[in-house]
TrEMBL record:
Residues 63-148 form the PNT domain. It holds the Pfam family SAM_PNT. It comes from Pachycephala philippinensis. It comes from the Eukaryota. Belongs to the ETS family. InterPro entries: Pointed_dom, SAM/pointed_sf. This is ETS2 protein. Coiled coil: none annotated. PROSITE patterns: PNT. GO terms for molecular function: sequence-specific DNA binding. The keyword Ribosomal protein does not apply. Keywords: DNA-binding.
Amino acid sequence: QPAFDTFDSSNSLFAGYFFSLNEDQTLQEVPTGFDSTSYESNNCELPLLTPCSKAVMSQALKDTFSGFTKEQCRLGIPNNPWLWTEQQVCQWLSWATNEFSLANVNFHQFLMSGQDLCNLGKERFLELAPDYVGDILWEHLEQMIKGS
């Protein structure tokens, strides 16, 4: 016990590294990133995409979609979606559903030729598929149309 009583904290190796509770301290507030977020809002809003983030997202999707190329070769599906048969449209939907673990895709809604599929336009196309699922499918279809 006496050894602890004679310990002088001012001569300690750590003296000066710890603040006294009595000293005036200025704290710097670290931004959380949530400062501009309304906590009272009931809707979950995604941050706006910037041109850079859109490019990154687009490249990631291209890389992911490239897996369909193997399936096209295996099944003899043309690169140009305008030339697809009803069966090839279904094969594409089946691949995408499995690849992206998409749920609630109604294949009967898409019983059409590639030409009819491409002629739908984005708005009508998205009406045929559940939210977000349609966006993924449309993005892939659009990239294939542009690439053909």
